Amino acid sequence: MGNDAYGLLAKYYDYLMADVPYRRWIEFIAAYAEKQGRPSSFRIVDAGCGTGTVALGLRRKGFWVAGLDQSPEMLALARSKAEELQLCMPLYQGNFIDMPLKADLVISTCDGINHLLSKKGLIKFFQRTHGCLSKNGSLLFDINTEYKYKRILGNKVFAWGIENMDLSWLNQFSYPFNFAEISMYIQRNKGCWSKASFSIQQRCHQVSSLVYYLEKTGFQLKGIWNNYSFKTITPRTQRLTLIAQKK
Fold first, then answer.
1. Which domain, by its residues, includes 96?
2. CB contact at 8 A, 220 and 245
3. Does the predicted TM-score (pTM) go above 0.85?
4. What is the rounded distance in angstroms from the CA atom of residue 20 to the CA atom of residue 117?
């Protein structure tokens, strides 16, 4: 998804993601982080923070958190939410690979890793994470599974409607890539609508490949969970949560 797409989507992003169990995600990440160090001195970097929901949830628990995203529109919303909550949280625009940040934990939520389409891009992300982590620091991220791409999204059409905006999602999955053509119909005034279209491409990463590249870049896999919970992983699991520790 390009920056222009994020700019178009930013205003409606939180509405469209209303069903995401962010609270459970935040509790899971916080529980892991608390085992690693004191919240006030434990540094978390949220790579691809979007509108800041997860980052701010962790910040409210007392952690030092920095948010990073390539979309200025997403970051503007994150900044507005932080100000409303009267929380101080540094936010940076740019590519994580180019940012000289230091952290004890790097997180990438909401299938950010699936947006890395090439082996080269995946390795660069893991290498950059390894380089910015403290001794025994960790990377925590999630991925959409092949089951979700193949059985839930598949070759289907989805539609949403919220105040002053309708959205259609035409999905196509051709392993290992998932393609989504999205059209937004926005009501500008009574009887007048405008249309904006963009595409999203993701890659279905196999766990075995992720583990291999993690180990090649200096990590050790600590565990795999079912969507930020301790429920048993099944063939129908749609989102996996992985934690890898710097060797």
1. 3-144+206-246
2. yes
3. yes
4. 24
